[in-house]
Here is the input.
Amino acid sequence: MNTLYYGDNLKILRKYITDESVDLIYLDPPFNSKRAYAVFFKDKQGGESKAQIQAFEDTWSWNEDVDEEFGVMMIHPDYPTELKDMLKAFKGFMGKNELMAYLTMMAARLVEMRRVLKNTGSIYLHCDPTASHYLKIMMDQIFGVNNFRNEIIWHYKTGGLSKNWFGKKHDILLFYVKDSSKSFFNPLKEKAYIPTLKGRTFAIEKLQAKTDNEGCKTCGQKGGFYHMAAMPDVWNIKTLFRNDKERLGYPTQKPLELLERIIQASSNEGDIIMDPFCGCGTAIAAAEKLGRQWIGIDITHLAVALMKKRLSDNFHLIPYENYDVFGEPESVAAASELAEHSKSQFEFWAVSLVVGQPFKSKGGGDSGIDGLLYFKDYEGDYHRIIIEVKGGGYTPTMVKGLKATMDRENEPMGILIALKPPTKGMLSYAASLGTWQMPGSLRKYPVLQFLTIEDYFKGIRPDLPDTSMTLKKANREIRESEKPTKLDL
Here is the structure.
């Protein structure tokens, strides 16, 4: 089945992905930009929330794990000699710094990606000028200079301007194949605009085109023609703005058109597409739309939760029914292990159980809110449900603290998601708070509810109004196989 994996992609590649099993790999790894990237959620009125969640931090450092991985690569026979020599040379003039840690991390993963790629397969490494020159040399050593195909320039109009340099308006995609004698490639074509010349038009028969009344999409000039030209290695595809309908708020989200172009060029229907840094899942969505099988991997539960929501919105796919999910806790013991390993990842996962929006205060401190759910009453007013997560022990005072947070925020309901069950006293206190009646209806809901992880695995869910507006809804996508075909009459 199609599969989402939560966890370190290096470990998942080594443990679960077999040799020569993948047809196409697209990866958009961190660029070592030394930035922290946040997810942009919406507030209950539809504006941008002031408090964001950090999705990942693109800052690397040389530590014991990196040093150990570097040592393994130097002695392991599966790593090419040329790669070892290159890494030793890099380390010789760079030292043990952030960039060297990043390149070591990438080298180990790219070797594994070459292993799982079929001999007919291709790989597209998405990067920016921060480290693209080093990655190009590394790809030459791992995949071979003769298997390099293109340095694709993705040109877009957004990006910062400066008085000190030219506008930075492009990313780079390094396109390699596993074996140039066996690789598959489907040449694509794109529309090219041909204007009229002094009232005269080009021969339509030669261009095989139709007149264009709207004009060139780039310059606006009217009165010309479109024709299909061989696609070059410079791609003019618009990036996503924050208010774009396609945008889900995830940092570094790429447009669906970009991934569709890659998948159409280097795979066939039914092929297996893998994205080992899949974020909010654009490559996965494109693969599903185009009738490919897919594997997605990410190291944060936040990204996996967003992907599950996107697959549901885009294609009405249900996890464990239409696709598998590996790495998420499937028992109370596994959830306890996650809580001990990473409090933040446990909180992300726990909030996702009710399809909530993770929350952190602007300063990053403990505000008593770990997540939020939004809903609209029958009179048109918006409300929030406060979510608090407890991965360890908690006391009656903490439960009363959740009610105090609800009062402070002037919100009507709260949910406490916990590993351990509440005491009788806690349940009695929650019951004493009574119910809240939905304005405009007779429907009532408990003011404060508990959801234990054990209850969740038993299928028990809190009694809530419709909170589907909480996370931005992705557009419904129509698979290519679902589109009506034109009949020749």
In short: The first strand starts at residue 3 and ends at 6.
